[in-house]
Amino acid sequence: MPVRRDTVLAATIGAALTAILLAGASLPSAADRAAPRPKDTGAQHLGDPDYGVCRGTNPACYHDWGNFDPAADGYRVLVYSRTAGPRHAHLGPALPAGLNPPLTPAHAAQSALVELGAEHGFAVDWTEDVTQLSSPSRLFRYNAVIFMSTTRDALDDPAQTALRQYVRGGGGFVGIHNAFGTEYNWEWYEGLLGGANYYDHGRNQPGTVVTGSRRDASTAGLPARWDFADEWYNLVPFPSDVRVLARVDEATLPDGAEGGSGHPGHGRDHPVSWCQYYDGGRSWVTTLGHAVEAWTDAPMAGDQQFMAHVLGGIESAMGRAPFCR
Predict the structure, then answer these.
(1) Phi, psi dihedral angles at 299 (to 5 degrees)
(2) What InterPro entries has UniProt attached to this entry (predicted)?
(3) Which residues are CB-contacts of 110 (< 8 A; sequence separation ≥ 6)?
(4) Most CB atoms within 10 A, among 24, 46, 207, 226?
């Protein structure tokens, strides 16, 4: 008797499905299917990594587990600026152990963030002591943790575990400038940065920042274009499944975007700030903030816009303002 084609087709499909299941493949979750995908901008998005967590711009990826009570506790952030490699001038000399060690005028970035909190009604602690990040219970005192130009292996194993548990419990993360040059070999942290990492940069030079949608707390009130000076980080991998908030117009860079290690730049799509929900928490990051003048009262084009951008990022990451709009 001849074998029916539909019988052969059904058997073939069944065998294929069995092979997929045996290989350990899994279907995307409902949250993953619902999460919007970014517009494809070409080859730089090929091979986007999968960090095995719920991530993207869908609030369903956030864990609202009641770990924070601003009505009773107010808002508080922790600034972490430990360096295990090159140290940016805006951080000043290395800080001694403990929480809230004395700051000097040389500690420009830390001092600016402390002043920002005082002006806008949230408390700021600061440290470069990794033991202050050693347990989730310590971190859950803070509505957001700010990595301020940290460098290379800035966390030990207990601190890595605590940061991951904190974010999974609904914590806020803010990464500024060389937070992208940190924990290179930890995939979960790379995902926290939006699936991106620092590769290289050209010289510090002026350029024009192009503001994205001004619905977000970190872009509300910013002009559509504003001048600034920075190192304009080139990124590998390139951020994925994020909402880009600001870009640099590479055509405005006098020396171009090519980096010291040969990266050609990102052309018309060179993001400098973005946000995402990640593994239960909120993540707002920016590659900007290199110049000391950006953190002080010294005159610099775009410094007021930059600080307003950072303020909105902090307030949204800690849940005080709507996040990632």
Answers:
(1) -65, 135
(2) Class_I_gatase-like, ThuA-like
(3) 79, 81, 91, 92, 95, 103, 126, 148
(4) 207
pLDDT at 96: 97
- What Å distances lie between residue 290 and 66, 188, 287, CA to CA? 36, 25, 8
Read off the amino acid at residue 213: S
State pTM to two decimals.
0.85
CA 112 to CA 127: how far, in whole Å?
A: 14
Over residues 79-99, the pLDDT tens digits come to: 999 999 899 999 999 999 999
What are the strands, taking DSSP E only, across the chain?
55-56, 76-80, 123-127, 144-148, 172-176, 198-200, 205-211, 225-230, 234-235, 243-249, 271-278, 281-286
Q: What is the architecture of the domain spanning 51-198+273-317?
A: 3-Layer(aba) Sandwich (3.40)
Q: How far is CA 207 from CA 62, 210, 247, 305, in A?
A: 35, 10, 10, 14
Angle made by CA atoms 154, 156, 159, in degrees to the nearest 5: 95
Does 184 or 25 have the greater pLDDT score? 184
DSSP code, position 121: T
For tokens 């860079």, the residue is: 253
